[in-house]
Write a structure and sequence with these properties.
- The chain is of the alpha+beta class.
- It folds into 2 domains: 2-179, no CATH class; 189-284.
- The protein contains 7 helices and 14 strands.
- The chain has helices at 2-16, 19-27, 65-70, 168-179, 189-192, 237-248, 279-284, and strands at residues 58-59, 78-83, 107-116, 121-129, 138-143, 146-152, 155-158, 160-161, 163-166, 201-205, 211-220, 225-235, 256-262, 267-275.
Length: 288
């Protein structure tokens, strides 16, 4: 049952998100580097820890979308946060476990991605468990004391908690933001001010057709129910109308609505709750 729900959930996520394309560009032949590379171990238990990488290691709190935005450079149009460790074995699981080993040959437990859909650039920040070096790389250069590990296709890692993945320019910008020499992204400050912390899945975008900005989350309520929250900054009239129409007959689909409007209609916040039986209806409820 969870696999069925997971497939539907993933499809719904991708309606809003272009991260599938961004992530796929990293997968490729990520371990295919030249003969000077450090060889990956096939055994996690024998893989060396992060200490084998010299220099500074990145360190930042990553428990939410808001945490990721704090070290995100300006100009990103989309961002997503996923806590895989809390979704495993629930209807929110949208992955095969083997997929979480794909980049590093060790499990990703939390993932944050930010992307500029117009410029075609972005990055990931991944927390790993265990924190080992179990992939091939070449140390090509360093930036402000951080070793840049070349993977393939112009993609690099900076090791740490979380480990950063992206091109050199973006990674250098992240280090500048973290060090305080460059400003962090503030594009989503207004809409994020209406977010309640704690959701396992969080997405925000400024390229959506429903509003100037659109936030989406899914969360396990830990009482047998699941909720989906959507927040719209300057929603279209058609978006507001669609929400109202779906709310009017929501009980027929086993959904409980809590809709609020703030700042003279500038912010529309919609919280929808359902039990496991009606989880499919929760995920497929769309305002397009």
């Amino acid at each position: 049952m969870n696999q069925k729900y997971g497939a539907i959930f993933l499809a719904a996520i991708m309606v809003m998100s272009i991260f599938s394309y961004f992530v796929a560009s990293f997968i490729g032949n990520s371990n295919d580097v030249d003969d000077t590379a450090t060889d990956a171990s096939t055994d996690i238990a024998n893989a060396p820890g992060f200490e084998v990488v010299s220099g500074a290691h990145f360190n930042a709190e990553l428990n939410s979308l808001s945490d990721g935005l704090k070290f995100t450079p300006e100009g990103m149009t989309n961002a997503i946060y996923v806590d895989y460790s809390r979704t495993y074995g629930t209807p929110l699981q949208d992955f095969n476990v083997s997929d979480l080993y794909m980049y590093y040959n060790t499990m990703i437990i939390t993932r944050y991605s930010a992307y500029n859909i117009t410029g075609g650039y972005g990055f990931e920040a991944d927390e790993l468990n265990p924190e080992v070096i179990n992939f091939n790389y070449t140390v090509t250069d360093s930036y402000n004391g951080y070793s840049l590990l070349f993977r393939s296709n112009g993609i690099y890692n900076i090791i740490g908690t979380p480990t950063l993945l992206g091109n050199i320019g973006v990674l250098e910008n992240i280090i500048d933001v973290a060090s305080g020499t460059s400003p962090a992204s503030d594009e989503f400050n207004e809409i994020m001010g209406y977010v309640t912390p704690g959701a396992e899945y969080q997405i925000v975008t400024s390229t959506d057709s429903l509003a100037d900005q659109h936030y989406l989350e899914y969360r396990n309520m830990d009482d047998g129910n699941y909720s989906k929250t959507e927040i719209f900054l300057n929603p279209l009239d058609s978006t507001v109308d669609t929400v109202s129409k779906l709310e009017a007959n929501s009980t027929e689909r086993g959904l409980v609505y809590n809709t609020s409007s703030y700042d003279n209609g500038n912010i529309l916040k919609v919280v929808v709750t359902a039990n496991t039986t009606n989880f499919i209806n929760l995920v497929t409820e769309q305002y397009y």
